[in-house]
Fold these 3 entries.
Entry 1:
Amino acid sequence: MTRHALLLVLVVAFLVGAVPGTASAEQLRLRAAVRALPVADETPDGYDRDLFEHWVDADHDCQDTREEVLVAESRVPVDGCTITTGEWFSWYDRETWTRASDVDIDHLVPLKEAWDSGAAGWDDDTRERYANDLGDPRTLVAVTDNVNQSKGDRDVAEWLPDFGGCRYVRQWVAVKLRWSLTVDPAEKSVLRDRARHCRNRVIGFTPAVTSRPVGMGA
C-alpha cells in the first residue's frame, strides 16, 4: 500500500467515526428500520451550533468538508482548494446549479435535530465527526441554498422536500440509525406513515462510534 493510500484509509476511518474492525455494515428494510428507531422525547436545552465544529479539513488537502461534498456531487469534474463552479443537481427541488454560491451543504438530519436526539450527550470529537461525516454520502447533501434555509432545523414531522420524499425518509432513517439517534413520537408516526407509501427497500448503514465526555456516565 502506498503512503498516499494509507493516509486515505486513515482519514476515512476518522471521518466514518470508527476504528477499522469495530463496526460492520447492517441492513434493514425501510419499515423494519423505522421500527428499530428508539423513541424518546427531545432534549433541546443547551444547543449551540458552535458545539459542532464543521467544515474542517480532516485530510489536510486544502479542501474543507463543504468543498469535499461539492467535489463529490458535481456532475462535471471540479478541482482546487476553493470550488466556485461545477454542476450540482439539488434533488430536493430538481434544480441544477453551476455556481457553488447557489448551493448549500445540508446536514440531512440538522445539527440541532441531532442535538435534540442524542448528540447533547456526545463529546466534542463525536460532534465534530458527525458535522463532517464524509463516510456516508447521505449525511451531507448539496442542495439549493434557499431550500436548505427554508428547511432550517425542522425534522420530518415538520418538513419534507417537494420531490424525493421517499428518498428523504430513507436517508433520514439511515443517518439516525448510523449515529444511534432517537426519534420523538411525532417523528416516528410520520416516518411510519410515509414508509407505508414507499417501496420497502433495503437500507444499509455502518454504525458510527459515539463517545461521551470523560467522566459522564452512560
Note: The CA atoms of residues 101 and 182 lie 33 Å apart.
Entry 2:
Amino acid sequence: MKITVKTTVNAPVEKVWQLWNNPDDITKWCSPSPEWHTPRSENDLREGGSFTSTMAARDGSMSFDFKGTYTKVDHNRFIAYTIEDGRKVEITFEGQAGQTILTETFDAENINPVEMQQGGWQAILDNFKKYAEAGV
C-alpha cells in the first residue's frame, strides 16, 4: 500500500530543493513534533548516493537512523529512493508562481497503522513548510 502526503510551500522550487536536501537544514526541520529532533544528517544527493538522518527523542530515551539510497534524482523536480528496509519513496517538487507543491509517496510498513504513518510523515512535511517559509 502506498501513502501520500502533500503541502504547498510559499517559496520558489530552487529554495525548497536546497532546504530539503542540505544536511545543515535537514537537522533544523526533520522532526514530527517538538519532542523529537534530528541531531545528525548526511546526504549524498545523486543516483546511487545514500543518506542517513539520525532522529532522536529530545529527552534521550530513543533514537534511530533513517537511511536510504537514491535511485533517481532530477534536480528541482523529483527524488526517488529506497529506504534501508526496502520500501520505496518518491518526492515531487512542482514549482509554480513562487510556490512549490511538495508531494511524498511512500510504501507503508506493516508495524504501525496507516493513519499513524501518514500523520507522522505529514507532520514532518508540515514542519518543513514552516521552516522553509520562515525566511531562512
Note: The longest helix spans residues 114-132.
Entry 3:
Amino acid sequence: MSSTRRPRTLTAALVTAAALGAVVACGSPGVAAPDRVPVASSSSAPAPVDPTGTTAMGTQRTITRDGHDVAFYVTAGSGAVIVLDAGGGEDASYWNALVPVLAQQTGATVVTYDRTGSGRSSDVPGAFSAAAAADDLAAGLQGLGLVREPVVLVSHSLAGEVATYLVDDHPGLVQGAVLVDANVPQFFTPQETARLVAATDEQAAQVRAAPQTRQTRQALAVADGFGPAHTAYHALTWPSDLPVAVIVSERTPMPAGSPDAEAWRAAQQHFADAAPDRTLVTARDSSHDVALDRPDVVEQQIGDVLAQVRSQVR
C-alpha cells in the first residue's frame, strides 16, 4: 500500500501539531472487533470512527480512562514491545506500512494507537494536553499487559511532547526511544514560542471562523494555550540514562532557510548532546514525514535501540 500524506496548513507555526483540510484515505486490511479493557471506574460512549481515516494495522483493543476511550492496535510478537506514536493530525494508520516490516524484522510486539480526537478514539473537549495524552498511553500499555517486556517508544513530531511527559511522569515504563523529527523541549525557547504563537494567531482565527471538522477541532485544541503549554514544556528534561536515537529530517518541518529551521536543527543536536546514551542521525532526502520518505532510516534506528535495550535486560 502506498502512503498518503495528509495536507497541513498550520504546519510550521504549530510544529506539525495538526492536519487541516482534506484527508485522503487509502485502503488497508481490517481489524478485529475491539476488546474493551476498562482501566478506570468511569465509562464512556462508544468511540467515534473517523469516516475519513484509514483502518490501522493490528488487532484493535480499547481502553477506557477518565471517561474516554483510546483505541490501540496490537500486532503480537515476543521479547519486546515497539510503540509507534504518530504526530499531530495523524492517527495510528500513519504507521501502516512500517508495522508489518518491524514485526517481521524484530519479532517484537508492535503497537500503535489513536490519540484522543483521532481515529477510533473519543473526542475530548478543551485544549490538548501532552501530559494527559501520556497518561492515556501509559494506561493503555499497562491495562493491556504490554509492559511485561521491554518497551521501545517511537515518537514523531508532536508525539515527542507526549514522550517527554511519559518518561518523566511514568519512570521505568520505557526502556528506549526513537524520536522521529520530534518536538523536543530545547526547541521551545521563550523567543521561539513567541514567534510560533504570533505566526499562528491569524491562521487559527481563520480556522475558527470556518465550518469545523474533527481535524480542525483537533488543530485548534493544540493552538489553545500553546504559549503557556510550551513555556512549561521547555523546562522539562529526559532521564539521562535512557537510550535515545534522535532522527532529524534534512528539510525539517520549518520553511527552508528560515531561522526556525536552523533552531529546529540546533534543538535536535542540543537534545542529543544532553546525555551520553543518545545518537543523532540525519535522514537525508527527507521531509518532516521521515517514516514515509525514509522508512529505512527509522527501521535501522529502531533496530539499533531495540538491540541495545535487549542486551541490557539479559
Note: The beta strands are 35-38, 59-65, 68-75, 81-85, 109-113, 151-156, 176-180, 244-249, 278-283.
